[in-house]
Every structure is written in C-alpha cells, then in structure tokens.
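Think of the structure tokens as a kind of shorthand, similar to the way a musician reads notation: each symbol stands for something richer, in this case the local conformation of the backbone. In the example below we present two proteins back to back. Begin with the first one, reading the sequence and then the tokens, and try to describe in your own words what changes along the chain.
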Amino acid sequence: MAPELQAKLSTPVIARSEATKQSQTHHVSRITHHDFEDLRRELLSRKYSYKTVKGYVYYNRDFLNFIGKSPSDITDNDIKDYLVYLSEEKESATSTLNQAINALKFYYGSMLKKKFMYEVKRPRKDKLLPDVLSREEVSRIIKLTDNIKHKSLLMIIYSGGLRLGEAARLELAHLDRDRMLIFVKGAKGRKDRYTLLSEKALELIDRYIQKYEPKKWLFEGAKAGRYLSRRSIEKVFEQARDRAGVIKDVSVHNLRHSFATHLLEGGTDLRYIQELLGHASSKTTEIYTHVSTRSLGRIKSPLDNLDIEGGDVEE
C-alpha cells in the first residue's frame, strides 16, 4: 500500500481509538463520582438517621465502583456479583451484607422502581453471642478512670444500658431526677424510651456538671454547641479498658450487653430488660439468656464428679 494512502487510513483510526478511550474514561469517572444526592435527600425526608444515610450512600457508591456501570444499566446479576464479592472476597459479616442489601433495595427498588432487588435472598444471620464483662471488670474500668467527665460518661452508659449514640446525644433535660430515670429521645427506630439512672451515677454527674457547666448536651464536644463525638467516646472506653487490664475484645457497646446480662442474673424479668433496652422484639433480648451465668453457674461439670486423683502428672 502507498505510504500516502496508509497515512490517510491510519490517522482517523487512531483518532477514533483515542476518542473511544477518552469516552470510556469519562464514563467510568462519571460513575465513580456519582454523588447520590437524590438518595441522600430522599432518606433525610423520611427521617432516616445520619448513620443510616451515610451507610446507604456508601454501599450504593461502592457498588457502582465495583460494577463500573451507571444506575440505569444495572442488572440482577450485577447485584448478585457484588454481594458475592462482599461475602467471599471481603469476608463481610452477615450484618454488613444485610445493610448492603437494604441500601441497594432502597435505591433501586423504592426509588428507581426496579423489581429485581426483591429476588435477592438475605443471608442467614450469624448466631454470635455478645461478649459480656463481669461485674468486677466493669468496676475496674470505672474505678481506674480518674477524669470526672470520662467516669461520668462510662457510668451513665452502664447505668442505663445506653447505645453509644444515645449517650452522646444526652441532654441535661433528659435526666429525670425525681423518678431516677434517663429519657432516651429518638433512639433506634426513632422511638423514645426511659431507662435507669443510677444514684451513684447521678451523684458523680452532679459534681461533673458543677465543674464543667455544660449548657445543653450533657457531654459537650470540643466544638462549641456540639456533643461529644462517637470516636471520642470509643477512645475513652478503650483507654479505660486497657488501664483495667481487660483482655477481652470489647468495645463501649459491650457495657450495654453487660448491663442487660447483669440485670438478668440479678433476677430482673426479661420483659423489663426489653423495655429498658428499647428492643422491638423479645427475641433480641432473649440472647442474654445464653450468656447469663445465673443458671449455668449452678451446674456442676461432670468432670468434678470423677475420681481422677493419684495419677502422675509431668511438671
């Protein structure tokens, strides 16, 4: 072929190839930077919590980054591939998979009116028992915390079995001193409830209030007018746990588990514990019957009934 003709034919091909690459790059970039503002606004208009909004946006964005398509091109297989990726490659917990399904189902099912989301089967929940701190461990954690603000925080979380976010958003007005109750406003599922306010906790909190003079939030953050951040509360507990020499893999949420378990072991009816924790279903509360030592502690191991004395043991 003549050089002139070859040049004429090859130039447009190269140009088209480069244009195609640029178009594909732009398409992937556009997908990657999908901000899901429509999803965020819809969730907020329905009064979903900040944590739920953040999670739903994250999983929808992560899904598009994984698939590399725009929302209008998504198929049933794309969603299944993403869930397999979360389950097998990232080894995500069942709770994570369920949150991802909820996030995708809301956007593609409720908002974009796609029906394939309803065909995705939810994984069975892992039957894991919560780690529970003993009374002695809780005592050490509180006793070895010198900072009056931090000690008040840990005491009130254990006193009422509060979730981390509930403790962070406690207001001065939420302490019902006459009835010795804590008013938990807008808890999980946007439900209000009352839980226990310990006399010991209130005594220390009054000293803390006198010293720090909080205005609205019981535990104010570093920024004026803001409550203490979730991460700050987590760090307070982690430092207290380490000082107390607790080697269990526990977080501040385990104070809530311990509160429920210790009440059950003390003879409190499960129905009252359900009310104090704010559980919608009694089945959720019943998990504490599996970690309580109230009954198990009275059972004697069959090994203790065997005559095994007299054998040689190498030291």
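Once you have a description of the first chain, move to the second and do the same.
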Amino acid sequence: MKKKQARLTVRRRSALLCCVLLLALVSATALASFAPVDLSRSCSLTVSLPGGEFGEDAASAGVQVDLYKVAEAKAVPGHDTLRYESAGAFAGMRISDQSDTESWERLAAEAGQIVREKLSSLTPAASAAAGSEMTDLPAGVYVAIAHGAALTDYFKEIKDEDGKTVLVSTARSALYEYQFEPELIALPTKEPDENGNINTAGSGEWLYGTECVLKASRERRLGDLKIVKTLKSYLAPENALFIFSVTVTLDGVKSPARVYSLNFTDAGIKSLVIRGIPAGASVEIREIYGGAVYTAVGDTSKTVIIEADALVSAGFANEYSDTGRSGHGVENHFTLGEDGWIWEKRADSSGKQEAP
C-alpha cells in the first residue's frame, strides 16, 4: 500500500522532516496484527514540489531530486523495528536510536555537507525529476538533495530567520531562485502519530511506498538596467545635461519614479547602470530633460523587461539643434543620514547605481 508520508514543519523556513525515527524497542508479539518488516522488499519514494503560490513557477525550475544512501537498515532480533548503520562516505555519521526532530535536522545537514564536499566522487542511489517516483530502493536512510537539473554548482550557504548559517541546494526559474535544505528519509516507514512523529517501533503497518512534499524558500532573481546616451553633436563650452525618469513595475505594483542624469562636455557616448532590479519587472525609462539646445533623435520613452543575471539596455540619442541658445545643469544628490539630509553636488549619475 502506498500512502503519503507525513510532513513536520519546523522553525527553519525550508525544513521538511520526511521521517523522524524513535527507535524504542517493542516486542513483535505486541504487533501481531501487522506483518513484520520485510527488508528484502524494495521501497519507492516520490518527492514533489510545493504548490500554492510557488505553483507553475517552481515547476519551471527543472528540479531534480538525488537520493544518496546514508545508512543500511538492520533488523533487531525479536522486535519488529529497525536500527541503522551508516555506510560508505557517510560511515562517520552516528544515527542515534533516539532521534528527535532537532537531532534529525542536524543529521540531514551533516549528510548534506558530506554530499557537497564529496559530490564529484559520489553516485546517487536514485535520481528523478521532482514529482516522479523512484523505485527499487533498498531499505535504509537516504538524504534527498533537490536542485536544478541544469546546474552543476548548486550548493550555497544562507542565513535562516534566526541568523544561523544553513546549507541549501538551489534551482532557478526565470524569476526565482528556489532553496532546499537536505532532507533525511527512512524507508520503509510507518504512519505518523498525532504529533507528526513516526515511531518505527510503534504499532501500525509498514509502508514501503512513500511520498513527501518539499518545502522550499525562494528569492527573486535580479538583473541590471543600462541607460546609454549618445550625443551626436555638441555646443561648446557649456555642459549638456540629460535627465531620465525610471519607473519599475513589479507584479502590477508601480514604484515611485527615480531620476538619473548624464552630463556631457563633448560629443560621444555615456552610460549608467542601475543594479539589482527584480527579474520580470517592467521598467519605463523616459528622457524628461534634454537641455535647451539639443533635440532628441528617436524615442524619448522606452520600456524594457528585466532578465535575471543579465544587463538589459535602453539607448537614447540627441544632437545639437543649432538654435544658438545655451544651457547647462548639475545633479543634486541627497542622502538621509543620522543628522538629517546630506547634500552632494554631482556631475551626473554615470557609473553604477542601486535599483529604485
């Protein structure tokens, strides 16, 4: 019989405990109404992505789940329960006979770190796309590493809500980076109790087919915008100042416009880069001032879509209008400090700027 294995939510944002083992020994006679554990029987496991707000976007991240066998399952003579012996690259791990939620999390993190350090020399016991069943799995304890199938460097460390450093594996869609902590899974297993704990020594049927749903955190991926200005002709000796209004719209919410400038003292090309704009955002760039003596060549308003880890450009051009008039300007930059606003006179915004 294949049933869904219970999930236990803990404080860390991306922790999913697929199985907590409480290995108190119970006499097999107390479990006579159920068939005893059969270690010769193969197991199966399906690890799926969360739905809800992650939904279709998470499905587009190409998540693959690799299973590495951490420990062998061993029968306990005279008792219908299991003990576990770590093996292979994980031989140094100690899987206690009494494993609560917190200690199981630590074991999962330890196993994940071993995979990270020895990845090039390890071969998964099984691999499958998230949501696909993995079959013919011998009884034992496994660590599941979920990651983007197209990624080779998918481990990183992040800070959790408590400021603690946590090892995660990653997958990326066009808009988000998904982060998964290593998960320990024991096969076979039993139904959880009312608190979500699974006691392999308790009463109940052994389950050889198991399903669990990953809990993931995610962060919006970022990209950069480059505004390029070409001044085709120039009237000396006054500087030529061009001002741009930049408005970012993300998921239907429009941010307040920010203003940037480029200042010329000769004909040529100048640019500025605005960093860290959320991927998928629509950015409207409008040239709102082009000097008293310069005429726009082409559009003065452009809209671009930001792509993750990419530099998207928007170009504008002006030329001298031969009016005989003159004009110039500077950029006044204000920063709010501890003692109030700080004024800074700048030539322009060229170089790199933070996102609006």
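Compare your description with these statements about the second chain. The chain has a mean pLDDT of 83.
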